[in-house]
């Protein structure tokens, strides 16, 4: 080849072939070969491979690419005729051309022609067919070619295609766009939606009147979010449409956040047997992801539904289908129960009434320009046309030619017809604007538009803005994409008279979805859930699963925690407890020991009885103050001791009273004072008896400090020690009240209470009583030492029994008091234990020391008489006898003979 044109082509275009060679190697090698050997009609005719095409004459020629036939089996490029996607769309282009050519206002005095080709739904075959559109741009030098008579050959000049309408499938459009870009031929598609085609740097001459799948993906994402789903799977047919659609959906969902992809499954071009069963099994591995986003062709959709039904999963999967599903019946035929509730989207469109009138009026006689119409006729009416050289098939009726579309066959306008018409009109409006600017006032095509410059035409295409065939605006953005306008459908079967697709919303840059019109399997109106993890209950925080932002585990904010935010539990302040729903904190109720509480009733009852009894004893002693029994009991110390007993009973009321500064002060003062007074008096008595008894063993001289005055002084000295300690305590730490929130803080915060109490810890309480306990123990020791005193001699033995019993009471008090330190009702138990123990010890003292005397005074006054006054000498004799008796008792135990005691005393 020695053409300067082709050398220039190779120099400037060859690098573009190399860039695409890796994608479709065989197709590009074949293309390169065809370009090298020539693609003119003559060369094709010589090879006998002239492609069938529709040729419509006109001043300006447009190309057309339509899938008139389906993909053929192996080795055969074309299969059966496609009535809707092929013939309907093809006729829509011719209808649009007729409308434009008859419009006096659009391209006046200019006729649009067309060269329409069949792509056979195969990208490589479509690539070969599209070479027809670039024939006129490849001029060869035929100066060295001569006919047999020496004349130069007459080669008809191919028509120049200024723009192409098509193609249908995205993979076909991508293949063709690579060729048309080399020759600067604008292309407007009516059905290709792959997001890849929005790349202006690679497909700058490509435009489309349908929105790209990136808009569709955004619409599907908005639908998913509107239904509250955050965990879905994706399913895509292998190829540009399916894979690009899912990629766009995943990309948009990542950018938006809040949605996770559980499974992303690809359906092979040539699925093996059992492939769809495996797909369903994979989807069930993440069964919570009930929502399935599906970008697939009709056949794959149908087989997915069949596999789901076979696996008895009817109603489990909730499909959201792309426009390849749309509102079509064929993908769901015989699988309606599985498809129930499926939400699908479709570019907003309308049925064009003018096209219906046009197409239904087509017949074999008036539509000879469509070379494939006879084939459509046979398929539509299920008859056979007789052609010369073709034998008539037996068993199939003969076509009469009188059949009519829609009357004798089922007819429904194909969904993309509107977009085919809009694509043709967009090209026409661009040419009209171009003609107005370049050829003002000129009739027909002027020199500036002969030929039409492709790059300039592309700018006019991007600038069009008109109302399309459905009344919606037709325009393009900087990438050549149309605005996103979608109708949203749901396939419904229940509660409607006519099962089918129901329009439930629209999407035009934002979603408008009527959720109340949606219904699901069995007519349920509640939107099913497709989430990885269900929302946490009130008071539960989310513990995220690493790497999966839509999945989490719910953990309860336990104890005294509340939900700070959806991921964090925090502790309530020490004086508060969480709300029941744990969304915040509330103040902890404050309590105190109430008078009506069982913990208070028993101690108060005992104290009242004790106070009445003590008052009675004091009154009796005062009334019979000069009687021998009262005088013999040591009146001065007895009144002191009875005062202490009275104060012991009185402290019960202070311990139960509502804490205040005054109450707390009196508690400190009187808690140990009553016991201190009682045991100081008893210790002084027992000590006096012991000293007298011991002194009597040694000499007849009486011991010191045994007079009543001395005894009172000793007692008050002992009492002053307690008072001194209390007043020091007052100075170091003034009394005040506190609210203890730890005492009643059980695991269940509903039972938490703050306890109003005085600032007396367990340790300070024991220290307050410790001096009295020392006096009590010391008194008990002296009582034990004085046990040898004769019973009729004095009060030594009653005091001894009193102290023994008191020790037992306080020994029981210690484990009860400290054993309940961990109880949630510690304050109540300890207060009751303390007051009851004090009342019991006071009652023991009162009962053993004074009740018998009161009994004698009141009921046996004859015994309340003066007895012989004992001198210290008598005490000494009694002590001597007592010593002898003890020795004899000891000798008897050692086996010695029994000695009768001396009873002369």
Automatic annotation (TrEMBL):
| Segments of this protein annotated with the region Disordered | 882-905
- Give the InterPro entries listed for this entry: ANF_lig-bd_rcpt, GPCR_3, GPCR_3_9-Cys_dom, GPCR_3_9-Cys_sf, GPCR_3_C, GPCR_3_CS, GPCR_3_mGluR4, GPCR_3_mtglu_rcpt
UniProt key word Signal: yes
Q: Which residues form a coiled coil?
A: none
TM ranges are 599-625, 637-657, 669-690, 711-732, 763-784, 796-818, 838-860
Compartments reported by the entry: Cell membrane
Its membrane topology: Multi-pass membrane protein
Q: What is its main location?
A: membrane
A Pfam family (short name) is: ANF_receptor
A single GO molecular-function term is: G protein-coupled receptor activity
Provide the alphabetized UniProt keywords.
Cell membrane, Disulfide bond, G-protein coupled receptor, Glycoprotein, Membrane, Receptor, Signal, Transducer, Transmembrane, Transmembrane helix
Task: Cite the record's Basic and acidic residues compositional bias ranges.
Answer: 889-905
All copies of the G-protein coupled receptors family 3 profile domain together span 599-873
Which is a Gene Ontology cellular component entry for this protein?
plasma membrane
Q: Which domain of life is it from?
A: Eukaryota
* Family to which this protein belongs: Belongs to the G-protein coupled receptor 3 family.
Q: Which PANTHER family match?
A: METABOTROPIC GLUTAMATE RECEPTOR
Q: What is this protein called?
A: Glutamate receptor, metabotropic 6b
Task: Please tell me the species this chain comes from.
Answer: Takifugu rubripes (Japanese pufferfish)
Classification from the root reads: Eukaryota, Metazoa, Chordata, Craniata, Vertebrata
The encoding gene:
grm6b
